[in-house]
Amino acid sequence: MRRVGLLSFALAVALTAPACSKSQSTADTSGSASPAVGTAGKTEVTRGDKNFVHDVAIANMAEVDLGRLAADRGTDTEVKKFGQMMVDDHTKASDTLKTVASQYSIEVPTSLDDKHSDLREKLTKKQGFEFDRDYIDAMVDGHKDVLDKLESRIDKAKLAEWKTQEDDRLAAKKAEVKGEALAILPEKSDNAVTASINQWAADTYPTVYAHLYTAKGIQTALKRRTTN
Predict the structure, then answer these.
(1) Rounded to an integer, what distance in angstroms lies between the CA atom of residue 15 and that of residue 168?
(2) Cα→Cα distances 104→59, 97, 149, 183, 195, Å
(3) What are phi and psi of 33, to 5 degrees?
C-alpha cells in the first residue's frame, strides 16, 4: 500500500509540472515584466537618429540664415517674402527639433557645414536678379533634399494620395478638398527616441512641402522674366 501511495504521488507531480511551467512562462511575458532589448519600450539613440538630427538641424540653420539674406538683398517682392517665411518657419522647426534632441541628449550642431557656408558665400556676391534667381534655385534644390530626408521617417502608405490632395489645396484648384483630409503619419518604431524624431519629421513635412511648392512657383516666374 505504501508503494502504491508513492507511485500515485509521483504521477500527480508529473502531471502538474507542465501546467506550472506554462503558468510561469505566461507570467514572464506579462506587461509587468521588463521589456527585452529590441521590443516595445526600448530607448536608444542610434547612429541613424544622430545623423538625421545633425543633417536637418544644419538645413534649418541654412534656411534661416539664407532667408535673412534674401529678405534683405532680394529685389523681387516674392523672393523677399519667401526669405522671411524661411526665417519664421524654419526657426520654429529648429526650436521643436532642439526640444526633441535635448530630451534624449542628442547633440545639435551650432554652425553651418562647408556645403552651406560655401553657398552663402556665393550668394553674398550676387546682386539684383542674379541673386533672386540663384537663391530660389538653391531653395528648390535644398527643400527637395530635406523632403527626401523627412520621407525616410514617415509612413509612405498614403503619401502619394496626400501629395495630390495637398497640390490641389495649394493651387486653390478646389475651394474645398472632397473627402477626409489625409494626415502625414510617422514611421512606426519600437524605439522611443526614433519614434519621437519620426513624429517631428511627420509634423514638419507639410510645411517643407509647401515651401518647395512655393519656391517652384517663384522659380518659374523668374524664368519667364528672362524669356519675355
Answers:
(1) 69
(2) 20, 11, 20, 26, 12
(3) -80, 155
Residue 118 lies in a domain: yes
Cα distance between the two ends of the chain:
114
pTM: 0.79
Helix (H) or strand (E) holding 17: helix 2-28
Nine cell digits for residue 218: 517663384
Residue 118 CA: distances (Å) to CA of 58, 60, 62, 80:
13, 16, 11, 21
Task: Tell me which residue range forms the domain holding 223.
Answer: 43-227
Q: Cα separation of 66 and 58, whole Å?
A: 12
CA distance 228 to 219: 15
Whether residue 178 lies inside any domain: the answer is: yes
pLDDT, tens only, 136-187 = 999 999 999 999 999 999 999 999 999 999 999 888 765 455 567 789 999 9
Q: Are 192 and 43 in contact (CB under 8 A)?
A: yes
CATH number at residue 208: 1.20.1260.10
Residue at 22 is within a domain? no
Instruction: Express each pLDDT in 39-79 by its tens digit.
Output: 456 899 999 999 999 999 999 999 999 999 999 999 999 99
In a domain, 29, yes or no: no
